[in-house]
Amino acid sequence: MHIRLICLLTVVLYAGSATAAPITYFFSSGSAKITATAGTTTIVDTTIALNGSFVTFDTDIPAVTDFEFTAGQSSPITMVNSYGGFDTFVIESAIISTGVGFSNPSATYSNGILDFVAGPVDVEGVYSASHTSGTPPPVSNLSAPFVGTSFLNGTVDTDLLTFELLGITLTRIAGAGLGEADDLIVKADVTWIGTVVQTPPVPEPGTATLLGFGLAGMALRRKRTSRGNG
Predict the structure, then answer these.
(1) How far apart are CA 211 and CA 10, in angstroms?
(2) Which class would CATH give 21-201?
């Protein structure tokens, strides 16, 4: 009876090890290259620091299954060209995460690199804007949500523990309300550096099998010993 149980355990260990669990990387440092344009005019071209994120992926499928990253309050950002009467703005906060129906239309994993196309992506942002002259009066804590950014290109490097997501639309601000002919479109290219693997890797099939056979061997030895003593 004990031998049967051990053999069953071996099969379970082998079957479980054949499918690796999704892995979550947490990130402590990152950056976002922010670009904003109005028609063909560049309004913003800068890089800001990011302060928290995770990405969950499975290299067996392969696919990115979930992610979220945040930005706290940035330093005042000087615009390349003024827009809506403002020449400086501050990102008060931003949260970028997977949207409803998130999926990976394509993904490949090879030599530690997971390249993927995924979406949609949702953004919740708050910003403030001002002009160095004080006119017009500054505006603050303006909400700038953007739901359903289209599919984006990204990369996970499982050796360097990095995560990139390119071309995120942070917000689109209607120009008409600010006296501008063109809407302001703000985009970001994000790069993260990983620090912690949350989910431990599942043992390789060979490891599980050896463990199971080792347990089975111990059970056989005990059974023979007990017979000899009897």
Answers:
(1) 7
(2) mainly beta
